[in-house]
Amino acid sequence: MIDDVSAASAARGVGVVTGVATIVTGVWAIVGRAAVETASGADVLVLTISVASIIVAGVAATVLLVPGRAVRDWMRAGLGALLVVGVLAYGFATTSLVARRPGSTYVDETSSTVFAAATGACALVTVGAAYVALGRDSRGRRATLRWAIPAALLTAIIVTTSLTMAVGASRDRIIDGPVVGDSVASPDDPTSIDRVAFRIRSVKPQVWWSTAGLVLVDADVVTAYHGATGRVLWTYEKPDVLDGEVRVINDSATSTVVLAGSVVSMGLDAVTGRVLWRSARSLFGGSDWDSGKRVVVDDEPGGAARVRFGDPRTGRTAFDETMSCMPAYASQAHDLVLSSCDDRRAVRVIDMETGRQRDVRLSGTLDDSSWASALGNGFVAVGTGRDAPYSVSVVDTRTATEVDHFTSDLVPISASPSGILVMDQPQERMRGDGRDVRIRDVRAHRSSLIGLGSLRARSHEWFGDTLLVASGSDGFAVVDPHTRAVTRHADVCTPDQYSSARTSDLYAVPGAMLVFCSNEGYLPYTMEIVGLN
Question: Which of 70, 279, 355, 364 lies deepest, with the highest CB count within 10 Å?
Answer without folding.
Answer: 279
